[in-house]
Amino acid sequence: MSALKKTDIFDFTLQNGVNKSWLPLYYQVFGQPIGTAPVVLVNHALTGNSQVTGEKGWWNALIGENKIIDTELYTVIAFNIPGNGFDGNSEDLIPNYKDFTAEYIAKLFWKGLNSLGIYRLFAVIGGSLGGGIAWEMAFLQPNNIQHLIPIASDWKASDWLIANVLVQDQILNNSSNPIHDARMHAMLLYRTPESLKAKFNRTKNDNQDLFQIESWLLHHGKKLESRFELAAYKLMNHLLKTIGENMDSEQLLAFAEETTTQIHLIAVNSDYFFTADENRETFEILKKVTNQVSYNEIQSIHGHDAFLIEFEQLSGILKNIFATTKLKTILA
């Protein structure tokens, strides 16, 4: 397992003028040592962390030795969003979760990379919230990322997403069992009716007291409650609605005209969270001014969570992106 490391960020001013004299930014490095190979930054989603591969790695199917993102060929870095609780200090680090935005997390990540001597990325990849932060990183430095790969995400929060963030925020601030109850609601956004039917089909537990779907939801609520802090959940949920809040379609076009980044949009056809329709609209906007954009769609009944389920499809989409450097490395 890669050790959890820390780089210190000093004198960081947030958008609302709040100054952080010091912020610790925790991260892990996998694969090749920094400075010896192309760098792939992996941004985690709402309940994720920097453990992207190895023991308890949440993206082991994609990242590791001889995987699509091959740690024999790449330096893979993953930061923890400050306050995500992976180092156990959410409450102290983030006293007011609404001080932070996705854009300012992106700025922190760039500062963290620069502190490690990294100024250009071969790729930045992330699903859901992680993809939104990847977009924000590209907006900040349009010529320092070779491949931008947002998965089940978009460059902005839609009205639908903002509405659901509000409902989650209300549950987190008003429920007597906030993490548990918010997680149960969220699971219905991450999956689809078809997915739940295929999994449970109205079956009951052996004791016949509960339907299996009820037990499953209660289990997910309890599971997250046992490993995630309330302050962390409030922050991560809030960040979702801030994705692209300082951008509009005209600014997106201006970014596309300026950037040298190759943009790889990957949506899920059944996603209820970051919908495929929104991603298709983004693709139509971008392709008006650049040919450095592609669109792929994972076909799945499982909704938003398909980016953590449909690994065979996702690997097929990503293969050509990461094969380029693989060939160059072998030939070298």
TrEMBL record:
Enzyme Commission code(s) on record: 2.3.1.31
InterPro entries xrefs: AB_hydrolase_1, AB_hydrolase_fold, HAT_MetX-like
Annotated catalytic residues: S128 (nucleophile), D271, H304
A GO biological process held by the record: homoserine metabolic process
Transmembrane region(s): none
One GO MF term: homoserine O-acetyltransferase activity
Enzyme class: transferase
One Pfam family here: Abhydrolase_1
Domain spans labelled AB hydrolase-1: 38-158
Sorted UniProt keywords: Acyltransferase, Transferase
Keyword Cell inner membrane tagged: no
Protein name from the UniProt record: MetX protein
Species this chain originates from: Flavobacterium limnosediminis JC2902
